């Protein structure tokens, strides 16, 4: 039986994962442009297309990585869009399961606070990725501008998977928008939604060996028939 469009999309969703260790090799500019061109087809409210994307490579990535290294431990997070105030119930359960899988993959004990901190800080090293995409939206578009950017991110991630490019969407990078404004020349009215580290996966690294689960349909869908 020939592969249908639905089956292709299902395979991309099933096989996509968050890469947490990259090889140093850069993605050719032509492939990055191909990926960005695909993501540009993302739908948005009234076709506003609020996303703007800053893409780093080479020395620009290295400078941004160094800036985070100096900044993160000395400054509080001040995201443009508030991070979750709390995790409770099933959301907390899922978050903990994901965290324990991550720590287990690299041999970090639950009580080893020092190594857990080191692993968290790997976010700001971009997991050694050669590229970062920083996604911003227009301030006046508010929450729905950010939602449209989320649709763009999903298209980017699936397109990357189709091209053999690994990626890690990272809210952590959005926790320090002032740093990004300074180093990327972003105006104040552009609000930082998320960062995406991307490149080629180091498939031999154990941190890339685990996969998270998804809830059953009955856990997330309520049918109303009458």
Q: What this model shows, in words?
A:
This protein has 226 residues and is of the alpha+beta class. It starts with a helix and ends in a 27-residue tail after the last strand. The chain has helices at 5-15, 29-39, 59-71, 89-105, 113-121, 142-162, 177-184, and strands spanning 52-55, 131-138, 166-170, 190-199. Helix content is 40%, strand content 12%. α2 (29-39) crosses α6. The protein has a domain at 17-83 and 124-207: NADH Oxidase. The relative contact order is 0.23. The chain contains 7 helices and 4 strands, in the order ααβαααβαβαβ.
List keywords for this structure.
single chain, 226 residues, alpha+beta, NADH Oxidase, 4-stranded antiparallel β-sheet, 4 strands, 40% helix, Nitroreductase, FMN
Quickly describe the structure.
The chain is an alpha+beta fold and 226 residues long. Helices cover 40% and strands 12% of the residues.
Helix proportion = 25-40%
CATH topological fold name of the domain at 17-83 and 124-207: NADH Oxidase
Oligomer: single chain
Mean pLDDT over the full residue set: 97
Intertermini distance: 38 Å
Radius of gyration: 18 Å
**Element pattern in H and E:** HHEHHHEHEHE
Structural class: alpha+beta
Query: What is the spatial order of strands in the main beta sheet?
Result: 1-2-4-3
Total beta strand runs: 4
The CATH class label of the domain at 17-83 and 124-207 is Alpha Beta
As a percent range, the share of strand residues is: 5-15%
User: Do you know the CATH architecture of the domain at 17-83 and 124-207?
Assistant: 3-Layer(aba) Sandwich
Protein name: Nitroreductase
GO molecular function: oxidoreductase activity
Domain Nitroreductase: 14-200
Keywords: Flavoprotein, FMN, Oxidoreductase
